[in-house]
Each structure stands twice: as structure tokens, then as C-alpha cells.
Amino acid sequence: MSAGSRLKDRTAIVTGASSGIGRSIAERLGAAGAHVFLSGRTRDAMEASKARIEAAGGRATVGTDDVRDPAQVRALVDRAVRDTGRLDVMVNNAGVSFPQPIVDGDPEQWRTMLETNVLGLLVGCQAAVRAMRACKAEGHLVNVSSIAALRPDSGVYGSTKHAVNCISATLRRELEEDTIRVVNVMPGAIATNFARNFDPEVVGGMVAATGVQVELKPGERMPDEVFDKLQPMMRQLLGSPDDVADAVLYAVTLPIHVNVADIVVRPPKQLNL
Ligand SMILES: NC(=O)c1ccc[n+]([C@@H]2O[C@H](COP(=O)([O-])OP(=O)(O)OC[C@H]3O[C@@H](n4cnc5c(N)ncnc54)[C@H](OP(=O)(O)O)[C@@H]3O)[C@@H](O)[C@H]2O)c1
Fold first, then answer.
1. What amino acid positions are annotated as catalytic residues?
2. Does 24 lie in the same domain as 84?
3. From 156-160, 175-179, 258-262, 266-270, the region with the lowest mean pLDDT
4. CA–CA separation, 79 vs 63, rounded Å?
5. Same domain for 168 and 143
6. 228 & 253 share domain
7. Helix (H, G, I), strand (E, B) or coil at 263
8. How many angstroms is it from 155 CA to the middle of ligand 1?
């Protein structure tokens, strides 16, 4: 079967599809034949992905949603089911990190991490299971965790990813009798906008090395050009979003009696996240 037809007639949702890992997964699933529903907050970036998917003969729909709001996550799943009659792959990828020490941390940033990384993912899993059961899908829940979940002292961000690992393992057990498999993905350091809330001096140093002139604003996205130059320069320390997307595509295209349960995708040298 060709790469372009493995997910023919399947419907996939990807949250956080406007950047980095989610964007790459969305484009991979689209190239494999799925009708992809891209969800995120930055519409222009997702429209560009939709154009690329459609130029290659695929199907894509763009929606702006905030995963911190359970109603918006449920509405996203409802849209996909209403438009295509089914749901086969749900990628809960939207996530954010504020790497502060706990003793100096801001409870509003903790709330943002907990609501985005944990609550949004939980509601996404629940809504997706109901939709997959209703259409009798051979489905996959893909939860994007982190290698931070493998360290006991990875801060508030890490604790959200420990929660993701626990949610994935629990759902895997709850869904043993269903035709729904749970794939838990733990990336290492990947060149994306993930560092948008990191120390501007550290990020600025890396960006300067690329030669790209960009004004860094904490919390804001950087141009793709930065990552296109940075990742090949630092490939020992920074993976590419496509590396993660390739692993996800592999896991969701296996027969339903095979569960690639936990995947770590990382560059050769490991940074602590
Ligand atoms: N990059 C890494 O080193 C790394 C390592 C391990 C795990 N991860 C995990 O990988 C996942 C993807 O991160 P990334 O590296 O691709 O970072 P990224 O480039 O910053 O992408 C994050 C995505 O999540 C979206 N998002 C954030 N908050 C949202 C919200 N409240 N509602 C809807 N969408 C929201 C962003 O949308 P906008 O940009 O439109 O705001 C963006 O599309 C996250 O779960 C992250 O924890 C990343």
C-alpha cells in the first residue's frame, strides 16, 4: 500500500496543529490519505498546512480552538464527525511549558500548563472515544507527552506530562475490549516554538547562531526559517518535528491488534526538559 493511501477514508484530528510537532503530524497524516482536522490558535499557519495537504491531493479542514475550554474540544470532535461521519485518529498534541522553579512560579502559568497539557488532553480523549465507538472505528488516541515524564524532578511542566503518561496507561486498560489503541509519545528536545517561554537569553543565543534577524518576544512564535536553520546545525541536540511525525504515522497505521504503546523519539544527546 502506498504512503498516500494508508489512511484513505479515515478522519484524523490534531490539536496544536499550527506549529512544530502537531503541524508535522497533521501534514504526515494528510499525506497518508486521512481527512485531517487541524486545530490550534494561529489560523494562517494551519491554512498553509491545509494548502500543502490539498496540493498533494489530500483533504484538510482548519479550525481555531482553545483546548483549555472543554466545550471547544468537544465542538472540534463534533465538527469532524458531522463533516465526515467518523473519527479514526485523535492526536492530543497542544501543549505549553513555563520552565520556572516551583518556589518562584506563577500560579496562572501553572493553570495554563495544567489546563492545556492535561485537561484539554483528557477531554479530547473522552470525546474521541465516544466518537470512535459510535462509528465503530479501529481508532487510535495519540497523546503527546514528553521525556520530562521519565524524570521525577521535571517541575510543573514535567508533572503535567507524568499525568499524560498515567492517563494514557489508564485509558489503554479501559479500552482493552474496544478497537481503540492508545499511543503515548514522549519526544526529547525538538526544534519548535516550544521554547517560546524559555529564558530569552538562552533562546536568543541559539537564534543568533542561525543568522536570522528576529526580535524575540517571550510567549510569541518565531519564523519557520529559524528552525529550518537551527535544527540541522544542532541535530545532535535537537530533533526535527518530522522525526516525531514519522513515529506517529507508523504507530497509527499498524493493524489494530498491535499497540505501539509508548514511544520515545529523541536526538542522540539528551537535554533535560
Ligand atoms: N519541542 C520539544 O522539545 C518537546 C519535547 C517534548 C514534548 N513536547 C510536546 O510536544 C507538544 C507540541 O509542542 P511543540 O514542541 O510542537 O511546541 P509549539 O511549536 O509551541 O506548538 C504547540 C502547539 O500547541 C498549540 N497550543 C498551545 N496552547 C494551546 C491552547 N490553549 N489551545 C489550542 N492550542 C494550543 C500552539 O498553538 P499556537 O502556536 O497557535 O498558539 C501550537 O500549535 C506539546 O505537548 C509539548 O509539550 C515538545
1. 157
2. yes
3. 266-270
4. 9
5. yes
6. no
7. strand
8. 17
- pLDDT of 70-123, one tens digit each? 999 999 999 999 999 999 999 999 999 999 999 999 999 999 999 999 999 999
**pLDDT single digits (tens) 182-209:** 999 999 999 999 999 999 888 988 899 9
Residues 160 and 232 reside in one and the same domain: no
Cβ of 222 below 6 Å from ligand 1 = no
Ligand 1 atom having least distance to the Cα of 68: 31
- Could you give the CA distance from residue 143 to residue 165 in angstroms, rounded to a whole number? 8
Q: How far is CA 60 from CA 13, 150, 249, 254, in A?
A: 10, 34, 17, 22
Could you tell me the residue range of the domain that residue 213 belongs to?
A: 191-237
Ligand 1 mean position, distance from CA 115 (Å): 13
CB of 240 shorter than 6 A to ligand 1: no
- How remote is the CA of residue 13 from the centroid of ligand 1, in Å? 15
Q: Which amino acid is at 63?
A: G
- Which tens digit of pLDDT belongs to each residue from 137-150? 999 999 999 999 99
Residue 273 within any structural domain of the chain: no
**What are the grid coordinates assigned to 7, written together?**
489512511
Residue with cell 508533572: 159
Ligand 1 lined by 193 (C-beta under 6 Å)? yes
Same domain, 32 and 64: yes
Contact 159, 148 (CB under 8 A): no
Q: Is the CB of 24 under 6 A from ligand 1?
A: no
Q: Is the same domain home to 225 and 209?
A: yes
Distance 16 CA to ligand 1 centre (A): 6
pLDDT at 3: 54
198 and 130 housed in the same domain: no
Q: Is 154 in the pocket of ligand 1 (CB under 6 A)?
A: no
Per the structure, the count of domains in the chain is: 2
| Residue 147 belongs to a domain | yes
If asked whether residues 247 and 206 sit together in one domain, one would say: no
